[in-house]
DNA sequence: AGCATATCCTATCTATCAAGTAGGATTCAA
DNA sequence: TTGAATCCTACTTGATAGATAGGATATGCT
């Protein structure tokens, strides 16, 4: 699960918008709040707008705000908007894969892996991520032995 | 969770070796069994060897075999050997991330997402993946409503 | 010894993409 | 009308994925 710079930035921007919801905030304010390059932030906000996750207003007093309440937008949606599907195998979606021989059962494994990712990223709203009050299932994952250790 | 061509190929090769364990199989046989470019398969097998997941023998009658029993190697280990860490955020490990403002809780979310991925890929052995007899927890994920549908 | 068949090593190629920058056209409130 | 903002198109730069090429090295068999 590789999260790109775009993806990380998008989530940080979305969280900032969530915390200020429903106020309208400019790209430069958002960028400096999270220490991101302004122009790049603009590009990302364009993606989020096209995905209907944020609404924008031009002109003085313009800026961006979440298109829905922060409890109704998941982190997964934000990531998908800028990075595409959450899980892909060699550029294909898990259920589109197909193999022969000893690998015939692999598609099921890819689908399971994607389901696991979704069970976290699609189940956590911006509101929860901003407040740190994660769903129990998710919180349990971070409490597990070894969850914070590299492998 | 993007699985690269290398990653996918590595798992398919590993599964083929698992099915034939403990026989020694040549790179060309493995490659044609799974329809992969032979030279590329050699590179990947080199990675797997350096990670001590396969053992190799040179010369006529040479080839590759799993370094351990297929029930003692997880799919996650194979993927790590060729693609590096299972989860990274902007090139960093989840527990190494750190943010300010509305994103302070984000590292916990990244760690949870990684734990979710691990709970599938590190809990499924090559033997299980080859036979299709996945652990209950994993099998349940593929049975869930919508698990096979794109988003 | 010699040969066939493997692994193994180094180097190279090409296309694509990520990340970020540049400049300016457009919109809008005061 | 002016200042501040979004929005649009284009570009640069570097790294990486996904191979391929050629040959050096090892090994079993006859």
Automatic annotation (TrEMBL), chains A, B:
PROSITE patterns: HTH_RRF2_2. InterPro entries: Tscrpt_reg_Rrf2, WH-like_DNA-bd_sf, WH_DNA-bd_sf. Keywords: DNA-binding. SUPFAM superfamilies: Winged helix' DNA-binding domain. One of its GO terms (cellular component) is cytosol. GO terms for molecular function: DNA binding; DNA-binding transcription factor activity. Transmembrane segments: none annotated. Pfam families: Rrf2. PANTHER family: HTH-TYPE TRANSCRIPTIONAL REGULATOR ISCR, WINGED HELIX-TURN-HELIX TRANSCRIPTIONAL REGULATOR, RRF2 FAMILY. This is Rrf2 family transcriptional regulator. It comes from Glycomyces algeriensis.
